[in-house]
Specification:
Layout lengths: L1 H5 L8 H6 L1 H22 L5 H25 L4 H25 L16
Helix pairs in contact: 3-5, 4-5
């Protein structure tokens, strides 16, 4: 995507300035991963890589709408728009599959009770 972004370089931070904001990029991905995990746990309780990947693709369609809005208001190229959409679909499908493979819901016969203070 570097070449596509260079076509409209005026819209992006310089390489040096981007380095100063890398922590915000990492934090944003952590936030998305955390909340995607919560959503998968809540709405795909059986888990499984396929089910969670499918759910994650539905979630990413919200982001696709935002990508089109940005395309409408910024002078982005269709190459960037398509790259963002395809990248989001792949990223979230893989993340959902990983979450589904790792996450295991508690068995139905397990009850979580709050211990009374003594």
């Amino acid at each position: 995507m570097h070449g596509a972004h260079q076509e409209v370089a005026i819209l992006w931070r310089t390489e040096a300035d981007f380095g100063n904001h890398l922590s915000a990029l990492v934090f944003g991905h952590i936030v998305m991963a955390f909340f995607l995990t919560l959503l998968c746990a809540r709405f795909v309780p059986a888990g499984g890589p396929g089910a969670c990947a499918g759910f994650a693709i539905l979630v990413v369609l919200v982001y696709v709408g935002n990508d089109f809005i940005l395309y409408a208001v910024q002078p982005l190229t269709t190459k960037i728009l398509c790259g963002w959409i395809i990248g989001d679909l792949i990223q979230f499908a893989v993340a959902g599959a990983i979450i589904g493979a790792i996450y295991k819901a508690a068995p139905a016969n397990v009850a979580f009770v709050k211990e009374r203070p003594h």
